[in-house]
Amino acid sequence: METSKSLNYQIFTFVFSVMTIAIAYSLFFRFHFTAIRTLPRFTTVGTKIKYQIIIQQKTDKIQSGLKLWEDFVDPRPTFREFEKTPVLRERQSFSIILGIYARWRWLVARKQRASAKIIDLPTLTPKGKTEISMEITPTHRGVVKLSGLTVLRLDPLGLCCACAHISLPQSFLVLPKLYKLPPIQLPGRRRYQSGGIAATLSIGDAEEFRSLREYRPGDSLRKIHWKSWAKIGKPIVKEEQEEFFVRHALILDTFQNIPYSEILEEAIAIAATLAWDVQTQESLLDLMFVGHEAYCFTFGRGINHTDKMLEILASIEPCQHKYFESIISTVMERISLLSGCICILISWDEERKKLIDYLQKMGIHTLVIIVVDANHNLQNMYPELINDQLTSFHILTLGKIQEQLCKI
């Protein structure tokens, strides 16, 4: 403060003047832009998507030196979300302040689910349209919500940035990542599917013709063979053979006490990989899991599409307030229809053992995949995990999922 003893006031005056000029310059940034964004319907985790944006300037001036930035819907976590998020292992060595900041940044990235870079815009002609290419990198599964675009302009000194927002709400779905999987022959044999001819026709199968016979009381009029009746003079019906086909259950374990875990994310990715593989097989697949309630979705052979199953898997949330036994009743309802079963578990305890024992008792061929932490030696802790004719156990550890999947 003593100007006779220090020259710092000169530096302060100079910097203050430069900043004042930069801020004042940014206040005169006037714009009138519109934009159209073309996004894909969905993508997968880790796969960059490139899309086109058509931006139109509606002023009579040439605009140059602008930058463009994607605006995501506010991803900041609530205090409750922050409080319930556990401190991950890699952050436990941080100081308290750095640990809190790192956890907050991790939650922001997880809720945002994708990242985008600022790009330089070409010179915008007066009242002209310009097409540009943008790129987004998905980082987490779920719905990515975009609120609009921000056009940035730096002042000539490069100290202050003027911003103009273009409202353009849009969203796309990020599917779970998919692993490379060798051909897997799912266990089980063909079984009769109850529900009548209508249920069979809905998946592209019909009862196969076997022979003709005379009409018996109670036969459906739909089975009458009218040409034979006209030729013989008495009612003749078609005798058909009931259709049998393969049906598997994909049971996904979503039961955990915390809102997020890497083990559950990997379990969902494995389920998505297996579901994608089923699309090349002539079989039905029932996806069973528990969220707010027990769900069962059927896919394959004309019922829905695998893309729909991946969309469901992308939106799954952990079940924190129910017990594992709540999914057993859903399995029991369909046990008579199942040829085989795939269980993807994130833990192993008496409740999960009870489900596997029940499937064995009912004679269902079962493939059990247990996802564990790299430091968890499940094989030594539970020696009863022994493969037999009906049940096959496979333990997959974090960091080695792809390698171990190829050995199934």
Structure description:
This protein is an alpha/beta fold and 408 residues long. It has three domains: 18-79 and 113-175, Immunoglobulins (Immunoglobulin-like, Sandwich); 208-241, no CATH class; 246-405, 3-Layer(aba) Sandwich (Rossmann fold), CATH 3.40.50.410. 26% of the residues lie in helices and 31% in strands. It contains eleven helices and 18 strands. The chain has helices spanning 8-26, 79-84, 96-112, 196-201, 226-232, 262-278, 306-314, 328-333, 350-361, 378-381, 401-405, and strands at residues 33-38, 42-44, 49-57, 66-72, 114-116, 119-120, 129-138, 142-154, 161-175, 191-192, 208-214, 236-241, 244-252, 283-290, 294-299, 340-345, 365-372, 391-397. The strands form four sheets. Strands 10, 13, 14, 15, 16, 17 and 18 form a seven-stranded mixed beta sheet that branches. Strand 13 (244-252), helix 6 and strand 14 (283-290) form a beta-alpha-beta unit. Helix 6 (262-278) packs antiparallel against helix 7 (306-314). The longest helix is centred in the first third of the chain and has 19 residues, at 8-26. It is elongated and about 115 Å long. The model is unreliable at 195-206 (pLDDT under 50).
Largest sheet: 7 strands, mixed
Q: How many discrete domains?
A: 3
Question: In percent terms, what proportion of residues is strand?
Answer: 25-35%
Tertiary shape: elongated
Low-confidence stretches: 195-206
CATH architecture of the largest domain: 3-Layer(aba) Sandwich
**Helical residue percent band:** 25-40%
Evaluate the radius of gyration: 31 Å
Task: Please identify which CATH superfamily of the largest domain we are dealing with.
Answer: von Willebrand factor, type A domain
Helix- and strand-based class? Answer: alpha/beta
The CATH topology of the largest domain turns out to be Rossmann fold
Task: Figure out the total of helices.
Answer: 11
* Average pLDDT score: 82
Strand runs, count: 18
Task: Write the H/E string, N to C.
Answer: HEEEEHHEEEEEEHEHEEHEEHHEHEHEH
Name of the CATH first level of the largest domain:
Alpha Beta
Distance between the termini: 75 Å
